Backbone:
């Protein structure tokens, strides 16, 4: 087992889970978050633990995406701009939308799904967590027969991976959830899954990590990484403070691309911006988190509010709230649910999903450098896969190998970008400090 000290960058679900699993095994770990814990995508997502959920690239999607892309009112929006990295990413995304690649990704994600369910259950019971955690699944709800037929086909793929589903017709759905309108035709319920308030879960898990000995710094931004002799040595914060360590885990969500680039490591990702609008609960409210399928909007009962969330917008790394896209969430909810029109807006938010073009996360040692581990790229599945990613990262660091085959997630699949380091060396700078 590795002794020493691990520094985790990023206080999202992936970073916090990594710190938790390392600290739980007695390892010295320091987590550094530039804002508050959960300040990135992890704090405001839909909170659905959607195990076995398929990757973003899938067969047939390209034609649909081309129709959607330039339309600001569609579920997936790409505002027109000149951005070679985005073009390259879209090209690679297109290449990933084949039946063969989809099936291969599903095999990997299904295995991770089973493991992450075990992680959530272990965390809930071992740590006596008090946050609400609703078992019994989430649903995909349809207003059209064609949508329901497609939903059945998608559900069969999960069944092939031994996940349980239940098909509900409109009447049965309304018997269970009278909030749904009469023209909703049915639902697929993914019964192995669960949902919770993602921020409450993350904050409580962070407290448990602290209880196991992890040191967590918030409002502490990493600005430099010190590498010498091809090995990670230390990070420097914006305050000038320096933390030395043996291992660096980059779990900084979409910002990992930039942090890795400074170290000569290529992790091409695009920010898939999504929104949420929390509204007061309608009466009756729904009891199970649901995705309004034709509109691609999730509705999750969360404490005192109903959270409406969704849409994907590739507009770069920014936190601008686009009102039109927020309003799309309310409009979608009104179409499926009774009483939402009268609900008051409580808060609004946007967050950036870290999206790889091939739809798979990046979990593994960085190529060409010793002691740098990457844990990111979970796109729409980061809350679901955060705990298992943290556990796998801890196994790689402490045991030298993970308990699940994660070859497909390896970090060297994008190649390397050695130029930065070489440039530093040409300048006679053997102890390279990269500014991030
Ligand atoms: C609208 C929406 C709904 C979603 N719904 C779901 C869902 O229901 N289920 C699901 O599984 N997933 C869902 N997701 C996806 C999920 O939220 C993300 O995949 C996940 O949160 C990514 O977690 P992360 O820890 O990798 O990144 P983040 O949560 O973004 O965390 C990265 C952290 O790194 C910090 N950081 C960055 N740079 C530095 C630096 N230099 N120094 C220190 N700290 C730094 C950031 O401040 C940030 O807090 C949803 C996403 C969105 C946007």
Residues:
């Amino acid at each position: 087992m590795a002794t020493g000290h691990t520094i985790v960058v990023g206080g999202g679900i992936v970073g916090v889970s990594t710190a938790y699993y390392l600290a739980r095994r007695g390892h010295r770990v320091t987590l550094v978050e530039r804002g508050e814990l959960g300040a990135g995508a992890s704090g405001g997502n839909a909170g659905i633990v959607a195990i076995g959920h398929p990757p973003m690239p899938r067969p047939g999607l390209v034609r649909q995406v081309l129709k959607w892309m330039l339309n600001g009112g569609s579920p997936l929006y790409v505002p027109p701009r000149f951005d070679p990295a985005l073009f390259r990413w879209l090209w690679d995304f297109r290449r990933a939308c084949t039946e063969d690649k989809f099936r291969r990704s599903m095999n990997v994600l299904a295995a991770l799904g089973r493991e992450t369910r075990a992680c959530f259950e272990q965390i809930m019971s071992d740590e006596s967590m008090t946050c609400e955690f609703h078992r019994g699944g989430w649903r995909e709800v349809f207003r059209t027969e064609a949508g329901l037929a497609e939903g059945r086909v998608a559900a069969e793929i999960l069944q092939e991976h031994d996940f349980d589903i239940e098909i509900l017709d409109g009447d049965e759905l309304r018997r269970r959830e009278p909030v749904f309108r009469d023209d909703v035709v049915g639902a697929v319920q993914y019964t192995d899954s669960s949902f919770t308030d993602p921020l409450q879960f993350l904050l409580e898990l962070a407290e448990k990590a602290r209880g196991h000995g992890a040191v967590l710094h918030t409002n502490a931004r990493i600005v430099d990484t010190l590498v010498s002799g091809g090995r990670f040595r230390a990070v420097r914060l914006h305050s000038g403070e320096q933390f030395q360590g043996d291992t660096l885990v980059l779990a900084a969500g979409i910002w990992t691309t930039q942090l890795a680039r400074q170290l000569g490591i290529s992790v091409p990702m695009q920010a898939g911006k999504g929104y949420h609008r929390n509204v007061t609960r309608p009466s009756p409210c729904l009891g199970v988190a649901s995705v309004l399928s034709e509109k691609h909007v999730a509705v999750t009962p969360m404490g005192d509010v109903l959270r409406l969330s969704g849409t994907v917008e590739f507009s770069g790394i920014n936190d601008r709230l686009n009102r039109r896209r927020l309003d799309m969430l309310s409009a979608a909810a009104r179409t499926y649910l009774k009483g939402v029109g009268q609900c008051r807006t409580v808060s609004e938010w946007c967050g950036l999903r870290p999206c790889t073009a091939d739809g798979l996360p990046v979990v593994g040692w960085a190529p060409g450098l010793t002691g740098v581990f990457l844990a990111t790229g979970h796109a729409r599945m980061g809350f679901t896969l955060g705990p298992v990613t943290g556990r796998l990262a801890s196994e790689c660091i402490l045991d030298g190998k993970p308990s699940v085959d994660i070859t497909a997630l390896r970090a060297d699949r994008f190649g390397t970008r050695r130029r930065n380091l070489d440039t530093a060396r040409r300048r006679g700078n053997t102890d390279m400090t990269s500014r991030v």
